[in-house]
Amino acid sequence: MNVSDFIHLTSELLWITLLLSMPTVLVASILGVLVSLVQALTQIQDQTLQFLIKLVGVSIVMAMTYDWMAVAMLNFANEMFNLIDKVG
């Protein structure tokens, strides 16, 4: 295995990490901004409200996308194990 193969595998790993984390990060960010906006407009200063709404939103997104995430991670892991078998 040469350097270009290692760089390719590392970039593939980073892309998979980015794609798998994107739904939860986007939902948490969007909900955080929306709840902060509502809190600023209504002058509610409760921090647990923002945490609870983001927790519920992220939990729903994780429940909806866990199958896709698991398949993507397992495919990458199988690819890495097959590569280890070929190299070693």
Automatic annotation (TrEMBL):
It is found in: Cell membrane. The keyword Chaperone does not apply. It holds the Pfam family Bac_export_3. GO terms for biological process: protein secretion. It comes from the Bacteria. The chain crosses the membrane at residues 13-39, 51-74. Belongs to the FliQ/MopD/SpaQ family. This is EscS/YscS/HrcS family type III secretion system export apparatus protein. It comes from Parashewanella curva.
